[in-house]
Write a structure and sequence with these properties.
Layout (H helix, E strand, L loop, with lengths): L3 H22 L11 H8 L3 H13 L3 E3 L6 E3 L1 H14 L1 H16 L2 E7 L4 E9 L5 E4 L3 E2 L5 H7 L4 H9 L13 H14 L2 E4 L6 E9 L5 E10 L5 H21 L26
Antiparallel strand pairs: 1-2, 3-4, 3-9, 4-5, 4-6, 7-8, 8-9
Helix pairs in contact: 2-3, 5-9
Length: 283
């Protein structure tokens, strides 16, 4: 008959196995889409026999796919299916749309609602004014994390591990204003964390300025971001700074709509969390 101690030992073993599975899945990135079991063992520090066993199990349940007869693996479509369900269940689009629409009408500029897809910021929604003065809603595929206001607004509230993973995956130069140095990006993210919003001053696209703020889920974790963007000549830095409060306030309201309760929900520690006191930014 199993004792309580036996059950606790079994639970701890299961948790350790799940941690190993996550370590394996997190080895993959856009730059390293195909890896051998030896590559995975080297990156995780797991024994090769353990790695081969877990990789085979993940392949059998569809979380990894083997590349033909080659001994390399990539993330499986099962993860895409699960991720799509997560997005649908979040219902971010319907909760946030009224706020994004109001923000667009007040500012007269484009608004973007984005979520992190594991590598880039995926646009859930973009609202813009057409020539006749009516709001248009369009979908866009993705945008870089390191040089957009939505990307930096998301990244500043993430763990040191994720930030360094983004940096190590490379910081491509989109314009002459793009931050491509890891140390400079870290310094920028710290400033963003302290003030509660991020600016994109022609970093992703020449002639375009943006201001973005983070959106939290019910657990307090930042998982999405909202921004206002427009021509640099119409949105110089002083005007962006003037709009920052409105963008942060709107992101804050969306977070509350999604179930975030400031002071009652605790997010995971971020790269810039202070040990003495954690700033509670709007949004």
């Amino acid at each position: 008959m199993k004792t309580r101690a036996d059950a606790e030992v079994a639970q701890q073993a299961s948790i350790k196995s799940l941690i190993k599975v996550m370590q394996i899945l997190e080895c993959f990135s856009q730059r390293d889409a195909d890896l051998t079991p030896a590559d995975i063992a080297a990156r995780t520090g797991l024994p090769r026999a353990t790695t081969h066993r877990l990789v085979s199990s993940l392949r059998d349940i569809g979380l990894l796919e083997q590349n033909g007869k080659r001994d390399t693996y990539k993330l499986g479509m099962k993860l895409f299916q699960l991720g799509s369900l997560v997005l649908q269940n979040l219902d971010l689009d319907s909760h946030a749309r009224p706020y994004a629409t109001r923000l667009q009408l007040i500012t007269g500029e484009n608004t973007h609602l984005c979520i992190f897809d594991g590598a880039q910021m995926a646009f859930v929604e973009r609202q813009a004014m057409n020539s006749s003065g009516n709001t248009m809603i369009t979908r866009i595929e993705a945008a870089p994390v390191h040089c957009t206001s939505v990307g930096k607004a998301f990244l500043a509230w993430q763990s040191a591990g994720l930030i360094h993973k983004i940096i190590s995956d490379s910081l491509p130069e989109r314009t002459p204003h793009t931050i491509t140095d890891g140390d400079l990006l870290l310094a920028e993210l710290r400033l963003i964390y302290e003030r509660g919003c991020a600016y994109d001053l022609q970093e992703n696209e020449l002639g375009v300025h943006c201001v973005g703020a983070p959106i939290r889920g019910a657990n307090g974790q930042v998982f999405a971001a909202l921004s206002v963007s427009g021509p640099a000549e119409r949105l110089p830095l002083p005007r962006l700074e003037g709009l920052a409060g409105l963008v942060m306030e709107t992101a804050h309201k969306i977070s509350l709509e999604l179930g975030w309760l400031p002071g009652r929900t605790v997010a995971a520690a971020t790269a810039f969390t202070r040990h003495d006191s954690r700033p509670d930014h709007a949004g």
